[in-house]
From TrEMBL:
This is Phosphate transporter (Pho88). The chain crosses the membrane at residues 24-43. Keywords: Membrane, Transmembrane, Transmembrane helix. It comes from Coemansia umbellata. Residues 150-221 are annotated as: Disordered. Pfam families: Pho88. Residues 156-201 have a biased composition (Low complexity). PANTHER family: SRP-INDEPENDENT TARGETING PROTEIN 3. The keyword Membrane applies.
Length: 221
């Protein structure tokens, strides 16, 4: 994403969207597309020539899979990945050409002229068959497509969890404070009622003593 936004900023600042550069951009895009398709055919021939028949077994990653197990070989798997790369390249060409000639957009041409070089370098087939790296660690088959939103999703999930924990902690603190206030109020009201009951009991005792005194005086008479 940073590469895309950086490229668009440079394009706007340099004024490459002006009509005088359109034919140059078209030619550059056409050359890059031909080179990319030629690279896929080179990969196909190289994979077929090496013919790595090492067994490969993995779970079917398609959403419609019912836990099926795929048994194949490295050469068949790699040829399938080349076919996917060719298909995605042709679909991208169709979309970019349509947007350019139908709506006059120049930015997609520029992006698809620059991005394929970066994507090709990061491609596992390029790493193995061109750079000669072993198919281990991140290059170990099967290859899982990268999800550019995973980090963001992970960041948003962590933020939501932290916010939820913070809210629950604050609510727990507030509940504890309210409970303490209620207990304090209960203690205060109890002490007040006790203090109020003491004078009343004292007055009752005085009245009782006065009544007894009057009764004794009457008896003496």
């Amino acid at each position: 994403m940073a590469v895309i936004f950086g490229t668009m900023h440079v394009v706007k600042k340099a004024g490459l969207e002006s009509p005088e550069y359109v034919n140059i951009i078209r030619g550059a895009y056409g050359v890059v597309t031909v080179l990319l398709l030629g690279f896929t055919y080179y990969l196909k021939n190289t994979i077929t020539r090496k013919n790595d028949t090492t067994a490969l077994e993995y779970d079917d990653p398609s959403p419609s899979s019912q836990g099926d197990r795929i048994v194949t070989t490295n050469v068949k798997y790699d040829l399938g990945e080349v076919a996917k790369l060719q298909k995605s390249t042709l679909m991208t060409v169709a979309i970019v050409v349509f947007m350019h000639f139908k709506f006059g957009y120049v930015q997609p041409l520029i992006l698809q002229t620059l991005l394929p070089a970066l994507n090709t370098y990061k491609n596992q087939l390029f790493q193995i068959y061109v750079l000669g790296k072993p198919a281990t660690d991140s290059l170990k088959r099967p290859w899982v497509p990268e999800n550019p939103l995973a980090a963001l999703t992970g960041a948003s999930n962590s933020n939501s969890n932290s916010n939820g924990n913070g809210n629950s902690n604050s609510e727990g603190t507030r509940a504890a404070a309210d409970a303490n206030d209620n207990s304090n109020n209960g203690s205060a009201s109890a002490s007040d009622s006790a203090s109020e009951s003491e004078p009343s009991s004292t007055a009752k005792n005085k009245n009782k003593s006065k009544g007894k005194g009057k009764q004794e005086t009457r008896k003496d008479k």
